[in-house]
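[recover] target loaded
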């Protein structure tokens, strides 16, 4: 059986109490009566009514003070209070609402209007209570979900740390024997008389060893970046010397593919600059290495220009342009992601594990710069990066 709404009527007039009580009982409300504000508060604490009908003019606490005292009780503060009074001025209505009332009905009132307002405010109070309960349940669910996500995140972080430590340990352990292998192979090429066939095989082994060493260095760089172990070393250097050194290191590969290389360095860059020359060297080397790898014929162009000078800093733009296979717009979206390969199929023609460009991006951003590409399939690619370098004072 559904319980009837409980109405508390507070009025110092016994006639009014009897009249209101009769109307409410006939319209399926349970009622409790109080003839003073003090008595009304005590009854409200005991019965927790669904609504309070409150007179204004009473001895002792008037209606305004009674309303304020009810609202000060945390267990009663959400009970709607409807004022009933013969004081119909706007000032009295405003004061009643400021005290915490939800409505104000002037005497003499129409029975139907009063009942409609009582039902409306009880229904609104119930809806608000249900909504608050629903919000509390949702909040609890969201909190539980957040805690689960936090736990999953912490586990992911732990897994990432383990992966990083694994990469670092692997790269450290492998680099020492790889250095020995690479050194021995280079000595074999440079200091031993070999037949043409033996030299061909040995040079192939040297190239493979260098590729593997590059992978190990990339792995170490990523693990250091994750653990905030990458340290920038700032030195003085000149752009033309750095570019020449990069080209020199890759000259053999250029020669093997018979690819002409054009360099265009702005004349104003024949001056000392200050920055992380090691990072710049590695980024440019990776871009040039990619250009050589993906270009079968045509040419490769390296351009370096000064694009802005301000506040003792010089922004430098490096470009590596090739006439190779090109890259589709879809592939460009993921090009600088770790372990992404333009061709990831088992039968791909171009080797690598997709770390080179990700490392280049990491170094570029470490220096406060940015990196990008412009390309189209079968029309070659233009890779670029821009970095700030200090002007040597």
């Amino acid at each position: 059986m559904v319980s009837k709404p409980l109405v508390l009527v507070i009025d110092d007039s016994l006639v009014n109490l009897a009249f209101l009580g009769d109307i409410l009982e006939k319209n399926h409300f349970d009622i409790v009566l109080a003839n003073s504000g003090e008595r009304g508060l005590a009854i409200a604490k005991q019965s927790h009514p669904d609504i309070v009908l409150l007179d204004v003019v009473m001895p002792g606490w008037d209606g305004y003070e009674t309303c304020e005292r009810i609202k000060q009780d945390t267990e009663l503060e959400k009970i709607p209070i409807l004022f009933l009074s013969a004081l119909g001025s706007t000032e009295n209505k405003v004061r009643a609402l400021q005290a915490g009332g939800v409505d104000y009905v002037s005497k003499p009132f129409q029975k139907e209007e009063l009942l409609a307002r009582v039902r409306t405010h009880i229904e609104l109070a119930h809806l608000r209570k249900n909504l608050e309960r629903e919000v509390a349940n949702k909040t609890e669910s969201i909190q539980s979900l957040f805690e689960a996500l936090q736990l999953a995140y912490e586990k992911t972080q732990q897994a990432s740390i383990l992966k990083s430590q694994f990469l670092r340990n692997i790269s450290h352990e492998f680099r020492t024997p790889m250095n020995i292998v690479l050194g021995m192979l280079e000595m074999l090429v440079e200091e031993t008389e070999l037949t043409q066939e033996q030299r061909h095989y040995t040079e192939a082994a040297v190239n493979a060893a260098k590729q593997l060493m590059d992978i190990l260095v990339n792995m170490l760089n990523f693990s250091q970046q994750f653990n905030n172990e990458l340290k920038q070393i700032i030195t003085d250097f000149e752009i033309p010397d750095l570019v020449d050194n990069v080209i020199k290191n890759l000259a053999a590969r250029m020669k093997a593919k018979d690819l002409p290389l054009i360099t265009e360095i702005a004349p104003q860059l024949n001056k000392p600059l200050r920055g992380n020359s090691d990072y710049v060297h590695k980024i440019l080397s990776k871009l040039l290495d990619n250009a050589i790898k993906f270009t079968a014929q045509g040419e490769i162009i390296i351009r370096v220009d000064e694009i802005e000078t301000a506040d003792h800093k010089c922004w430098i733009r490096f470009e590596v342009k090739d006439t190779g296979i090109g890259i589709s717009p879809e592939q460009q979206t993921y090009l600088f992601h770790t372990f992404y390969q333009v061709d990831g199929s088992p039968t791909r023609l171009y080797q690598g594990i997709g770390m080179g460009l990700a490392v280049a991006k990491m170094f570029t951003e470490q220096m406060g710069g940015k990196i990008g590409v412009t390309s189209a399939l079968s029309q070659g690619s233009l890779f670029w990066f821009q970095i700030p370098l200090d002007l040597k004072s």
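[recover] notes: The CA atoms of residues 194 and 214 lie 27 Å apart.
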